[in-house]
From TrEMBL:
Heme binds at residue 455. InterPro entries: Cyt_P450, Cyt_P450_CS, Cyt_P450_E_grp-I, Cyt_P450_sf, Insect_CytP450_Detox. Its cofactor is heme. One of its GO terms (molecular function) is monooxygenase activity. Pfam families: p450. This is Cytochrome P450. It comes from Brassicogethes aeneus (Rape pollen beetle). The chain crosses the membrane at residues 6-23.
């Protein structure tokens, strides 16, 4: 070995030693603060299992939640980055609601200049978020949802028509892809004004781009590691959160649809119409369609409108279809619950002259409890983020959360905690009936988040879920297929709970 090679090895060894010393020093941060922590390992901190896809984030944080139960909070490390994990619902209430002004940011990377699709309501913060939230809230009012109801119902009928054809050929069906196509068609129509037809054509471009948005290649994973750990470097290299084909597709669809509507004076009562009004600096009146010039002088660009339509799609189609599939799993596994849901549904349909309507959906209290219990066992976002925007002293302690630190909210851990929900693995809708729901510990049940940044699309999602369940149970008796792998084990990729091997059901026609 020549002298140059030896010098290179010494240099590399010195760099590794310096990095190791830096990480070991960083891994003492929470201990020095007097906060309980785990045993972080170089260089991954506490997240090696997640990075190497041995566990998904929801399962990992729940594992930590269960292990550290009894503590009010825990300190974590993502590589050398520090994160705060509150375990106490009282403290979580402070973070999400009472002391929201310290935690109004989600801490999600976005780059308005180089990756405008990433600058959506879910990721942005500060005055711009507050203004946009107030502008978009009317899109989810009961009046606006009633206008969209027929569109959602039509998509639901297309889904059940497909299930009938499939069940005639083979009664055993994997449901997740069917439901993903249903929610794709719903949101494609309501948010983009497009007839996606993915129920008839699973290779429709809208469906393929939706799949790609939720598929992570090895390159995507490496890019996200850089984005999360070194955001300045990501911005320098113009790294986008989503792949170029996805970004280009959604921007093109919104731009072309807006141009077509404006050039042809077309008005539809959907989410995109609201975005067009905001682009043209028009206030939204939730009770009628009268236009009034906005007083604040602000408006959306086409790129900003595309970002808001995209998050409507991204936040809605995968989480909603997954919730429906888990609800079907529990209904298929508990036939007495299925019969009770169907009996209530049939009685209410008689009351409304066999018409599935918006008002009819609001008159199904037992179905509401079934959906609530599904969201408890399988929360759409097992973990969600906040970022400390102003240094915060944890109540009744000498612990400080520094500005810019990430805070993780463990929804999955709370929902499966036997202290708050006895026999947490048991599916029991009666936890949420009128008598029992008042006994639920405050902030132990947060499937849609809480506080000012709670999920804006909750009502919209609930309508999709109810329509899918009602129309399916009206046509079929559902039982669990032997193809479903039990007990359910969740995929280790991604952040949304997804069972390995899918969910397979037997769909048997009900004689009318």
């Amino acid at each position: 070995m020549n002298e140059t090679s030896i010098q290179c090895l010494i240099c590399i060894g010195s760099i590794i030693a310096i990095l190791y010393a830096y990480f070991r020093h960083s891994f003492n941060y929470w201990k020095n603060m007097g906060v309980s922590q785990l045993n972080p390992t170089f260089p991954f901190g506490d997240m090696a299992d997640v990075i190497f896809r041995k566990k998904n984030m929801g399962d990992k944080i729940k594992e930590i939640y269960d292990r550290m139960k009894g503590e009010k909070y825990v300190g974590l490390y993502f590589f050398s980055r520090k994160a705060f994990l509150p375990l106490d619902p009282v403290l979580i209430k402070h973070i999400l609601s009472k002391d929201f002004h310290h935690f109004y940011d989600r801490g999600i990377y976005y780059d308005e200049e180089n990756d405008p699709l990433s600058a959506h309501l879910f990721s942005i913060a500060g005055p711009k978020w507050k203004h946009l939230r107030s502008k978009l809230t009317p899109a989810y009012s009961p009046n606006k949802l009633k206008f969209m109801f027929t569109t959602i119902l039509d998509c639901g009928h297309q889904m059940t028509d497909l299930l009938k054809v499939m069940a005639d050929k083979d009664s055993t069906i994997e449901i997740k892809e069917i439901l993903a196509r249903y929610t794709t068609d719903v949101i494609g129509s309501c948010a983009f004004g497009l007839e996606c037809n993915s129920m008839k054509n699973p290779e429709a471009e809208f469906r393929l781009m939706g799949k790609r948005a939720f598929t992570q290649t090895v390159g995507d994973v490496l890019k996200m590691v850089i984005i999360r750990s070194f955001p300045r470097l990501a911005k320098l290299f113009n790294f986008g959160v989503f792949s170029s084909p996805v970004t280009n597709f959604f921007q093109r669809v919104v731009r072309e649809t807006i141009e077509y509507r404006e050039n042809n004076n077309i008005t539809r009562k959907d989410f995109l119409h609201l975005l067009i009004q905001l682009k043209n600096n028009v206030n939204i009146d939730t009770d009628n369609i009268n236009k009034k010039q906005a007083s604040d002088g602000t408006s959306l660009t086409v790129e900003e409108a595309a970002a808001q339509a995209f998050i409507f799609f991204l936040a809605g189609f995968e989480t909603t279809s997954t919730t429906i599939s888990f609800a079907m799993f529990e209904i298929a596994s508990n036939q007495e619950i299925q019969e009770k849901v169907r009996e209530e549904m049939n009685n209410v349909l008689k009351k409304y002259h066999e018409d599935v309507s918006y008002d009819m959906l609001m008159d199904l209290p037992y179905l509401d409890t079934v959906i609530s219990e599904t969201l408890r066992k399988y929360p759409p976002a097992p973990v969600f983020l906040r970022k400390c925007t102003k240094t915060y002293r944890v109540p009744d302690s000498d612990v400080w959360i520094e500005k810019d630190l990430s805070v993780l909210i463990p929804a999955y851990g709370l929902h499966r905690d036997p202290e708050y929900f006895p026999e947490p693995d048991k599916f029991d809708p009666d936890r949420f009936n009128e008598e029992n729901k008042t006994k639920i510990w405050d902030y132990s049940y947060i499937p849609f988040g809480d506080g000012p940044r709670a999920c804006l699309g909750m009502r919209f999602s609930m309508i999709q879920i109810k329509i899918a369940l009602i129309l399916t149970l009206k046509e079929f008796n559902i039982t669990l297929s032997k193809k479903t792998i039990l007990p359910l084990q969740m995929e280790t990729k991604g952040i949304i709970l997804s069972p390995i091997g899918g969910l397979w059901f037997n769909f048997n026609h009900i004689k009318q």
